[in-house]
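User: Just a sanity check before I run the rest of the batch. Below are the C-alpha cells for the first item. I only need the designed sequence back.
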C-alpha cells in the first residue's frame, strides 16, 4: 500500500480510479475540526469552538497552527483567536494559514526561531544541512541571518526544537536529522514575505544557494540523483537574477552537455527539466525572462514545449512551441527555427492535426536547408516523410525517406542507413505500406525491417533508440510469425 498526500491532482492516476483512487480532503468535518483543537489544548464553549473551526474553514494545517498558538500564547483560550489579525488575504495562497503564521511570527519576535522560518522561505524542498550552513555563514545576510551567524549548535537545536513543538517545522527525519522542512504553506508564507518586503535578503539568500548547489554537484553529473543539485541551482540562480549565467553555465553546459542533450536523452529527466526551466520565465510558459538574450528566450520556449510534450501535456506545449518558432524566424536564427518547426510538426501530428503537421514538416526541411546543418536536413526530411505517411501520401513519403537516407549516407558513410528515431519512422512506413499489398511483400518488408532494426540496435546508446529498435524488431518478427502459415495469393 502506498499513500500519497499532495495539494495537487495527480493527472497520471485519473485513469485508474479503482486501483489508485484519489480522495479529495478539502476540509475537515466540523466535529473532527473541534476535536483537533481540543486535542491541541484549546478550550472553550461548544459554540466558540465550532465558530473557531468555521472561521478558519476547517483547514487541518491552519487549525493545528492555531491550536498550538492559542495553547502557548493564551493558555488555550479559544476566544483569544480574535486577537489574530484577520486582515483580508488571498485564499488561493493559503490566506487563513498565513494569518496564523503571521501571528506566530509576531509572537516569536526577531530571534533565531523566526530567522530559521525565513530561511525556509528560500526553499521549495527540504533544506539540507549543507545549504543551511551556506546561508548561516559570515557575513550575515542583512534582514535575514543576523540572529543565526555565530549561533551555537546548542542554541540552534533549541530553536529548531521550539519550532517543531509548535508544528511550524516538520518532525525530524531519522535518516537526515539535520535537514529541516516545513509544510509548503509555511514555506510559501515566508517566501512571500522575503520577496515582497526584504528583496535584498531574498536575492542574496538565493545567490548563496545557487553558488552552493552548483558547486556541490559533479561538473558533468552522470545520474539523475547527481543532477538534482544543478536543477535546484537553476531555480535559485534565476531568483537571484542570474538567469543568463544559469542557462549558459548550468543548464546548457552541465545538464544538457550542449548538443548532446544528455539529461533527457540518457536520463529522461523531463519533470526535473520543466521545474528548472520555470525559472527562466516571467509568466510560464509564454513570457521568457527579459534577462535572457533573444536567442535564449526562443530556446527556452522550445525546451519547455519539448518537456511538456514528453510529459503528455500536449495541448500546453503548442503555444510555447509556436512562439519559439516565430521568435527564431524573426531573428533569422535558422538553426533554432528548423529544430522548432520540426518539433511543431511532430506535436501537431500527435494531436491529430495531420495537415498542419505536413505543412510544418515541409517548413522544417526548408529551414534546415537554409541553416546548412547536414544532420538536421536529414532528420527533418524524415519528420516530413512521417507526416506524409500518416496523411496517406505513401509514395511521397517513401521518396522523402529515400532522400533522407541518401543524406545520411553522405553525412556518415560508415552508417549509410537511417537509424535511431529516423530509422524507426522509415521502418514504420515499410511495414505499413507493404501490409496492404500482399503477404509475400509484407514478409519481405518484415525481413528488411528486422535487418534495419538489428543494424541500428548494434550502436544504440540512447534509451529511446534502444526501445524503438526493440519495438521494430518485435513488429517484424510478429509479422513473420503471423504470416508464416498463410498461403500466398494466386499469381504470387
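Assistant: Here's the designed sequence for the first item:
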Amino acid at each position: 500500500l502506498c499513500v500519497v498526500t499532495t495539494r495537487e491532482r495527480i493527472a497520471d492516476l485519473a485513469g485508474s480510479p479503482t486501483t489508485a483512487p484519489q480522495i479529495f480532503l478539502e476540509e475537515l468535518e466540523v466535529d473532527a475540526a473541534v476535536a483537533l483543537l481540543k486535542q491541541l489544548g484549546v478550550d472553550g464553549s461548544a459554540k466558540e469552538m465550532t465558530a473557531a473551526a468555521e472561521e478558519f474553514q476547517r483547514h487541518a494545517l491552519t487549525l493545528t497552527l492555531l491550536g498550538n498558538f492559542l495553547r502557548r500564547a493564551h493558555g488555550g483560550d479559544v476566544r483569544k483567536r480574535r486577537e489574530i489579525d484577520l486582515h483580508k488575504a488571498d485564499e488561493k495562497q493559503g490566506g487563513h494559514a498565513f494569518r496564523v503564521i503571521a501571528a506566530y511570527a509576531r509572537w516569536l519576535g526577531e530571534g533565531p526561531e523566526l530567522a530559521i522560518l525565513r530561511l525556509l522561505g528560500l526553499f521549495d524542498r527540504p533544506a539540507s544541512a549543507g545549504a543551511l550552513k551556506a546561508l548561516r555563514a559570515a557575513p550575515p545576510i542583512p534582514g535575514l541571518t543576523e540572529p543565526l551567524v555565530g549561533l551555537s549548535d546548542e542554541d540552534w537545536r533549541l530553536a529548531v526544537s521550539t519550532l517543531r513543538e509548535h508544528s511550524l517545522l516538520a518532525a525530524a527525519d531519522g535518516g537526515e536529522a539535520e535537514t529541516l522542512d516545513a509544510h509548503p504553506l509555511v514555506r510559501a508564507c515566508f517566501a512571500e514575505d522575503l520577496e515582497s518586503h526584504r528583496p535584498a535578503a531574498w536575492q542574496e539568500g538565493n545567490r548563496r544557494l545557487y553558488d552552493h548547489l552548483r558547486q556541490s554537484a559533479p561538473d558533468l553529473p552522470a545520474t539523475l540523483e547527481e543532477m538534482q543539485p544543478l536543477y535546484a541551482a537553476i531555480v535559485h540562480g534565476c531568483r537571484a537574477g542570474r538567469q543568463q549565467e544559469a542557462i549558459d553555465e548550468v543548464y546548457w553546459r552541465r545538464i544538457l552537455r550542449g548538443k548532446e542533450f544528455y539529461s533527457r536523452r540518457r536520463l529522461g529527466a523531463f519533470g526535473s527539466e520543466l521545474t528548472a526551466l520555470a525559472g527562466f520565465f516571467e509568466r510560464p510558459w509564454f513570457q521568457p525572462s527579459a534577462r535572457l538574450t533573444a536567442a535564449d528566450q526562443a530556446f527556452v520556449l522550445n525546451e519547455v514545449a519539448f518537456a511538456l510534450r514528453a510529459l503528455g501535456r500536449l495541448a500546453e506545449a503548442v503555444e510555447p512551441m509556436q512562439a519559439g518558432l516565430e521568435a527564431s524566424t524573426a531573428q533569422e536564427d535558422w538553426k533554432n527555427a528548423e529544430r522548432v518547426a520540426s518539433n511543431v510538426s511532430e506535436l501537431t501530428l500527435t494531436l491529430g492535426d495531420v495537415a498542419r503537421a505536413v505543412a510544418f514538416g515541409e517548413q522544417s526541411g526548408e529551414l534546415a536547408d537554409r541553416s546548412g546543418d547536414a544532420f538536421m536536413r536529414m532528420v527533418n526530411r524524415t519528420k516530413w516523410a512521417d507526416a506524409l505517411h500518416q496523411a496517406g501520401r505513401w509514395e511521397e513519403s517513401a521518396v522523402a525517406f529515400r532522400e533522407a537516407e541518401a543524406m545520411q549516407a553522405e553525412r556518415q558513410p560508415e552508417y549509410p542507413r537511417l537509424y535511431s528515431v529516423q530509422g524507426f519512422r522509415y521502418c514504420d512506413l515499410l511495414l505499413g505500406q507493404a501490409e496492404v499489398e500482399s503477404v509475400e511483400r509484407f514478409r519481405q518488408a518484415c525481413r528488411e525491417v528486422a535487418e534495419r532494426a538489428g543494424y541500428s540496435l548494434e550502436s544504440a546508446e540512447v534509451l529511446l533508440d534502444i526501445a524503438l529498435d526493440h519495438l521494430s524488431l518485435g513488429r517484424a518478427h510478429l509479422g513473420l510469425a503471423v504470416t508464416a502459415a498463410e498461403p500466398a495469393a494466386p499469381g504470387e
